[in-house]
Write a structure and sequence with these properties.
Length: 426
RNA sequence: GUGAGCGUAGCUCAGCGGGUAGAGCUCUGGAUUGUGGCUCCAGCGGCCGGGGGUUCAAAUCCCCUCGCUCACCCCA
């Protein structure tokens, strides 16, 4: 095991074809739904200047402080493997002057992210996200639309999940609120657990998440940020809720929901699922109206979310996963060298006609080929032997019910095409 | 970074009051030499994660190390 050349790095992994079946189902579904809402794909580099993330995400965040894959390149630039994509997408949005387009610019992305963390259930050092970013509006209906789209994705995949929302206010009212909160916590230190004493200083909003019983009384008395917002933010939040209500979307207000990145303002939301262990968030997002300016762009209002693909595929129902698995519709089996030559010819012809088929050069006897066809769950086997060569027609066997009949090459192609049209073949 | 648990066949695991390895599944061959699944039979396959120590003897006991897993912190 310790022989390192044949081992991947900790926190990374190989995704084998069987596991990828579920991933493809999720990705296809996401592309379809995102398109329904007008999101178009953008691909940005997975490596960017360290400064982009440090400023964008926030110097004091855990991500920037201790989780980035940062190194000097040969040109002595400090570069970083992206720990998330929003900063990159905003950078691309500014650099390509997409803000000059009118209307809301909707972008989506798919790809790997990197964070140097300790491996855990639902957490990897290289993990994958699908995300969306909508630029150019702070209309609360946009917040609601984005959230609706996120839920539609979960629903289409048959994933049971709960929506948590909160408003973290703007810089102004959040600063005011956290100052107030910190003051109260300082006066209650003796009634808090060790973790919360630390949080009271470093990340006071996190206190709301504490599971320790002794902290409960104090937490119950704390003012909630959603009720301490300035008029503008408060109005925005209640509008978002109204739009969600109008869309028939159920949500839970989570006073302690603060995303771990500095750029979030106002709407913050998360979709959580059971069966995921401690890392139960499969989707997280929020509004980040000031981020563009932080990295040197014009004022841009924006909101987005990211889905943890690794976690989403973990809770994907089995039947959805199976629907993404590849199964050959036709396995071509042959006996003897003349039949082998014929098999090659038929395979070529079928593929030219846009049909797929599978034949194996290592299988040996006809029995072995049949066994292999069964094992890979082929729907049909085309059998070519001396009899078939003499007749110039072939035996096709339907594995499901063991029925078999004779077909010419033309009939075979027609049969496969008809099945494809009926949607029996992916 | 901290804590706990676990590393034995390709996979899941048993063996751990020391005597140099076993099962199920998988794989290969056969019963069935032009027909899969089911059944039966046989076979392949292990420096027991690595290193050191104790001992006549270590998968088993001790130490170190690497890796994996879960949890804390935090996040997707």
């Amino acid at each position: 095991m310790a022989e390192s050349l044949i081992n991947n790095l900790p926190g990374t992994r190989d995704l084998l074809p069987e596991e990828l079946a579920g991933w493809h189902v999720v990705e296809d579904c996401a592309r379809r739904i995102f398109r329904q809402y007008g999101f178009l794909e953008i691909r940005t580099p997975i490596i960017e200047s360290t400064e982009l993330f440090a400023r964008g995400i926030g110097e004091d965040t855990d991500i920037v402080g201790k989780e980035m894959y940062t190194f000097q390149d040969r040109g002595d630039r400090s570069v970083t493997l992206r720990p998330e994509a929003t900063a990159s997408v905003v950078r691309a949005y500014i650099q390509n002057t997409l803000y000059r387009e009118s209307g809301i610019t909707k972008l989506c992305y798919f790809g790997p992210m990197f964070r140097y963390e300790k491996k855990q259930k639902g957490r990897w050092r290289q993990f994958y996200q699908i995300g969306v970013e909508a630029f150019g509006s702070d209309h609360p209906a946009l917040d609601a639309e984005i959230i609706e789209m996120a839920l539609r994705l979960m629903d289409s995949l048959g994933v049971q999940a709960k929506l948590l929302i909160n408003s973290v206010g703007c810089r102004k009212c959040r600063t005011e609120y956290t100052k107030q909160l910190r003051q109260i916590l300082q006066s209650e230190l003796e009634n808090l657990c060790d973790d919360c004493r630390r949080r009271a200083d470093t990340n006071c909003l996190r206190v709301f998440d504490c599971k320790i019983e002794r902290c409960r009384p104090v937490i119950g008395k704390l003012p909630v940020i959603a009720e301490s917002l300035c008029d503008e933010c408060s109005g925005h939040f209640s509008s978002v809720k109204t739009y969600l209500d109008g869309a028939g979307i159920a949500y839970e207000i989570a006073p302690g929901l603060v995303r771990g990145l500095d750029y979030y303002v106002r709407t913050a939301f998360e979709i959580v699922s059971g069966d995921l262990g401690a890392q139960n968030a499969i989707l997280g997002g929020g509004r980040y109206d000031g981020l563009s300016e932080v990295i040197g762009g014009p004022p841009v209002q924006a909101i987005g979310f990211a889905v943890g693909l690794d976690r989403l595929t973990m809770v994907l129902p089995e039947e959805k996963r199976e629907s993404g698995m590849w199964k050959p519709d036709l396995f071509i089996a042959y006996k003897g060298d003349a039949a082998f030559q014929k098999a090659l010819h038929i395979a070529r012809e079928l593929r030219r006609l846009q049909q797929s088929c599978y034949l194996d050069f290592s299988a040996g006897s006809l029995k072995r080929q049949m066994r292999l066809a069964n094992k890979i769950d082929a729907a049909h086997v085309l059998i070519i032997g001396d009899d078939e060569l003499a007749r110039d027609s072939y035996t096709i066997k339907k594995m499901e019910d063991s029925s078999q009949w004779e077909v010419t090459l033309e009939e075979l192609a027609q049969y496969l095409q008809a099945r494809g049209k009926q949607g029996k073949v992916r």
